[in-house]
Amino acid sequence: MVRTLGTAIAAGILDSIDKNTVKRLIATVGTESSRRRLENALSKHSSRLEVLLHQEYLRAIREADVALLAVKPVKREEVFGSPGVREALRSKLLISIMAGISTKELTRLALGDQHAPDDQGPLQVVRAMPNMAAKIRQAVTLYTADLDTLSKDNLEIASWIFNQVGHTQHVAESTFDISAVLVGCAGSLLLLAVDGLLDAAVAEGVKRSEAQNMVVNSAIGMMKLVPAGDHPSVLREKIASPGGCSKGLCWS
C-alpha cells in the first residue's frame, strides 16, 4: 500500500496543471527493480523526476524543501535514526503518511534528544492519510497539524499536495485515528459487500462483468444521494419498502 500511495502521490504532483509549483521531485525506493518501475510509470516527467535508492534518502532530504515520508511505520526508527537525517529535516516541512504515528511522535523522531535551534522556530510537521483512490485522483486525504506552530504557507503546501490526488479534509489529532479508519477501511467493507453481491449474481447465472457494471454503478448513484441531503437510513427505508424484495434481503 505504501508503494502504491507513494507512486500515486508522485504522479498527482507531477501531473499538476501548474508545472512551476514543483520544479523537481526526488523519490527514493528500496530496490533497483522498484526504481525502474517508478521511472517507467512516470517517464513523461523524466525531466523533473529523479529516483534514488533508499541508501541515498539523506541526499534527497537535504536537497528538498518538503520531505514526504511514505514508509512503513516499523521502519521509522531506522529512517530517523540514520546519521544526518535529523539535522537535514530541521528546516524542512515534514509530511508523513505513516499509519498510527502522531504528530507528537513525529516531532520526537525528528528531533531525537536534541532541540531545534531558536532561529529556525518549531518543527513543521503534518500528519496525513490518503486512501487507495489516490490512484485515480479520487482519494479522501485526512491531515492534521499543530496549527499554532505550523506556518500558513506550509499548511497550504500540504493541502495542495494531497488535492492533486483527490479531496482533503483537516481533522483534529484527537479524532484522526478513527477518521483514518473511515477513509481507509470503510472502502474495504464496502468492497466486501460488492464482492458478495457479485458472487451471488454469478451463482445465479449473471456474467461477472455484467454484474459488476450493475452493482458498481448502482452503488455510485446511491452514494451520491447522501451528500445531496438524504440520510442513509432514510434512503434504505425508501428502497426497502414493506413487503418488497429489498426488505427481505436486508433482514434475511
From TrEMBL:
Q: Where is the Pyrroline-5-carboxylate reductase dimerisation domain?
A: 173-246
Where NADP(+) is bound, by residue?
28, 70-73
Question: InterPro entries in the record, alphabetically?
Answer: 6-PGluconate_DH-like_C_sf (IPR008927), NAD(P)-bd_dom_sf (IPR036291), P5C_Rdtase_cat_N (IPR028939), P5CR_dimer (IPR029036), Pyrroline-COOH_reductase (IPR000304)
Q: Does the keyword NADP apply?
A: yes
Q: Does the keyword Cell wall biogenesis/degradation apply?
A: no
PANTHER family under this entry? HYPOTHETICAL PYRROLINE-5-CARBOXYLATE REDUCTASE (EUROFUNG), PYRROLINE-5-CARBOXYLATE REDUCTASE
What is the protein's given name?
Answer: Pyrroline-5-carboxylate reductase
